[in-house]
Amino acid sequence: MAVWTTAHIPAELRHESVRQFVREWAEITEPDRIELVSAADDARLLEEALAAGELRQAGVGRFYARSHPHDTARSEARTVVATSDEADRGRYDNWQPAAEVRATLTERMRGASRGKTLYVVPYLMAPPGTPLAPYAAGVELTDDRTVVLQMVRMARVGIEYLEGLVDPDFFVRGVHVTGELDALGQGTEEDQRLFATIADERTILHFGSAYGGNALLGKIAHGLRQASYDGQASGRFLAEQFLLLGIRDLETGRTYHVCGGFPSASGKTNLAMTLPPDALGARYRVDFYGDDIAWLWVDEQGRLRGINPENGAFGVAKDTNDATNPTAMAAIAEGSGTIFTNTAYNEITGEVWWEGLTPEPPAEVEGWLDWRGDPIAGRGPERRDDPWAHPNSRFTIPLSRIPNLADDADDPDGVVIDAVIFGGRTRDREPLIRAIDDLAEGVYDGLTLGAEATFAAEGLDGQLRYDPMSMRPFFSYSEGRYAKHWLDVLGALNVAPAFAHVNWFQRDEGRYLWPGYRENLRALLWLLQYREGQVTGTRTAVGVVPQPHELDLTGLELPAGDLSRLLEVDGPRWAEEMGYRHEHLAGLPDIPAEIWAAHDRVAAALAAGGSDDAR
């Protein structure tokens, strides 16, 4: 066994707590060498990765990577939160005792980086100088060069970000060890993969993957699970899987900021990167802040503020095209430094392709390889209709490449949040938008957020897969304490944001009633007008919906019957939904009385005939 001494650690790594952390895990993982990296190393690391065959050129200034075929997505079943207090156990956080998890992972990582370089990646998951900076500093150790290159795109990377910490020992310690991907037993009873956030020790240990969601420790493990735990433990902030966007009224000069949570496949990234409809483009501009994570806190004036802690975007490629997301398409153009993962790749031309990029795949298949690396031209009849790209294929880009990035996206003070929205994929029941005036009912709506994505296929047509606040895979303590923390933080506000629920997915026999995409801005504009008292809407048992004439439909031809359906609240269908919601809440530990009272108010209003009079 190699014995690691101070001499083996890069001399420029002078931060003593980091040196101790590196020394400890170098002794366990036994790499051949240790390298401290920063964002300035990006070009060199790209050249090394290309020379080693880890990346391929995908046009000018773009790159392509292919992961192991059994390593293409996050694994919720193999992801745990560990602490020393079983009170942190929730329904969704896969809680385990910290001592047991640390011991298991230490043994699995022992000697697992032999023959490799251990990269030391210091980073900051926030704009420098933000009030939340103490919770944003971290160091990831990884034995995978492509992971380093993606971290450079997703975070602010460099040892300088750890200098000047008030407490030099207070940073998140992350260790990522890839392991032998051919020998991990993925999906079997002998599965060796384990991805743990030891939240009360502020330590992240991930073993058995090189896929971004499992390996970019600053992103989900730190930016969501650890930060959510830190926010509750400190009482200072919320860390949520939320988009963050700005809507600028060019006529009045006022900018509004909206954040919100959406379950998977419910349009979050497309909304975060949206542009105004052409008919409204002379009046409004939409600014991008973030598509995946927001940290929220109350400022000294009692206003809710938010930042995107990430410095990049890790987007799903599938169905991204010039119509659905022109912003993303512009961001990943040649020269952008984008890293594509598990798309189809043409080894002759360097092109990439995924389902939804164009209506049909390229007609000329010469040179095209699918996401597994198999030639498309060599497919037999049984594989003719198989996807070219993996459904979870990704693109990784720095925020600076997004053309409508807000001018103040890096402001350490964040932006004032005017509205918090939730939205799920629901064919009925949910109107286009409904505003919620009561704080507890807004939090209740977030806790009962859901989408139909899986239940129809499982024979439970009409029920939702509940995804509280869109945080179901990312909870780090019990859901009841989480809800109480939301109520406590927002209860300190002097100026509360508007709450609303949106739904772009109402259908009539398979036909969508709302065109979606850029047109979704019209619903948000109504919400902001409602917040300002410029429109009144119509009160229902589940919130306030727009009156038809209050929506700005300039340039949009929408059948009158469709508009009525979009704004309708189906009382009997909602009464059925309330039964499901009661069952869902009853399965979550320690739900606060305020949330149950909100549930009962909505149920009583529905029982009174669907009006709001029972409140």
From TrEMBL:
This is Phosphoenolpyruvate carboxykinase [GTP]. HAMAP family: PEPCK_GTP (MF_00452). Residues 20-231 form the Phosphoenolpyruvate carboxykinase GTP-utilising N-terminal domain. It is found in: Cytoplasm. Substrate binds at R74, Y211, G212, G213, S264, N392, S393, R394. One of its GO terms (cellular component) is cytosol. It comes from Leucobacter komagatae. Belongs to the phosphoenolpyruvate carboxykinase [GTP] family. The active site is at S266. Transmembrane segments: none annotated. It comes from the Bacteria. Pathway: Carbohydrate biosynthesis; gluconeogenesis. Its cofactor is Mn(2+). Monomer. Keywords: Cytoplasm, Decarboxylase, Gluconeogenesis, GTP-binding, Kinase, Lyase, Manganese, Metal-binding, Nucleotide-binding, Pyruvate, Transferase. Its EC number is 4.1.1.32. It catalyses: oxaloacetate + GTP = phosphoenolpyruvate + GDP + CO2. It is an enzyme of class 4 (lyase). It holds the Pfam family PEPCK_GTP.
